[in-house]
Amino acid sequence: MQKKLFVLLSVLVLASMLLAACGSAPVATEAPAAPAATEAAPAATEAPAATAVPAQPDDKEVTLTLGSWRVDDVAAWEKIAAAFHAEYPNITLKFDPTNPPDYNAALRTQLETGTGPDLFFVRSFTVGRELFGAGYIASLKDLPGLTDAFSASAYAPWATDSGEPYAVPISAVSHGIYYNKELFAANGIEIPKTWEELMAASKKLLDAGVIPFANGTKDAWDINEVVMMQLIPSDIGGYEGRMAYLNGDRCFNSDEMVAAFQQIADLRPYVPSGFEATSYYDGQQLFAQGLAAMMFDGSWSINDFKRDSTDFEWGVFYPPALAGKDLYVTFHPDAAIGANAASANLDAAKTFLAWLETNEFSELLGNNIPGFFPMAKSAPALTDPIANDFMSFNNQAKGVDIRFVWEKLMEPPAGSVDAYTSLNNNVIAVLKGVETPKEAADAFNADVAAWYAPSAGCITK
Length: 461
Fold this sequence. Notes:
The protein has helices at 2-16, 74-87, 100-112, 126-133, 146-149, 152-155, 181-186, 195-207, 220-236, 238-246, 255-267, 280-288, 302-308, 346-355, 359-368, 385-396, 419-432, 437-449, and strands spanning 62-68, 91-97, 119-123, 168-180, 211-213, 292-298, 314-317, 328-339, 399-401. The protein is an alpha/beta fold.
């Protein structure tokens, strides 16, 4: 099954041009890379021929700083750094993360002022491509082994339109609903098979005095990336449906998009009272303390819930599709690592980047940071049961695709509203009850069609 999964994911990347935080709203937009859009992320499970890691430039002692938005992964990266150092004793890697909401702006400032790290996490699509276009990320077109270790579709979210790579893909992430198994059992609820069954279960929980869903909107990205973008693929028909919007064959206020906004409206009675003031962290604590039965979240939170949700048994399932609709899963290319083009240690940095292509790194990442799925062809077997549950969603679905707006829709001209911001604003307006689903879809369509050329004919629709 694992092999089948990663083959499927590889196909996904090729079909959708994968676009990434976890945990924080993207900042930019981007047009997919040369190997053009496709639908999946990680790739197969067969181990390719051993990747040739370039020799160290010389024997001098070098310390490389690695910037990241993953503040929770310090211990895991210490293990990864130690393994690299054991192979390259003259190169020491220092992991130096930044709080996720501050990462994009902080990194940009560092790069602009010449104080950036030697290596840093790069977000997929627009955000990373803008940094490369500005000359802050070194080209990896000559990095040994890159095309052997990764399919072209896997590194496409970190490559130019002509296919020039600038970062080494390290992980993709999945999405789902965490649920309290004990609250489900106490209320006679089984994992729902349709959206309608999920809403009926939510009503039963609410009637029993339990908050059905822990999600709020204080951190606006949560309701957009983690809720809306889990629902959209099943409503629109996955990758092929998304391409219909990108090609201008569907307008952004189509019936399918109205249906997705309607699902947000359906959730209104079942989120916390005062959800406007409920942050992402607050929601996690509501779930961890057993006060909320479910939470829309990502695979990146596995360790958080393992740490905090210790008083009850919990698991994950994917939000089911509306009755009569096929299930499509959001599986997203999240992070790659690039080298600072201005680094004084660029040769050593590229030695580390080449080492990221190895089976050793994939195993260290996948099994020390569960929920972050290696994207190399030689993806390892996963030991964490919840991580494997997330991966199983891809086999259960008819198809897998990236987050809806990542490809092409976050790059408007100055003065226009990008699709991420518009979708976010209108999702929140529907949850608050200040817009109907149709009004929200119309507003979303108007914002995007105003600047996205393929949708020019949708402006008055």
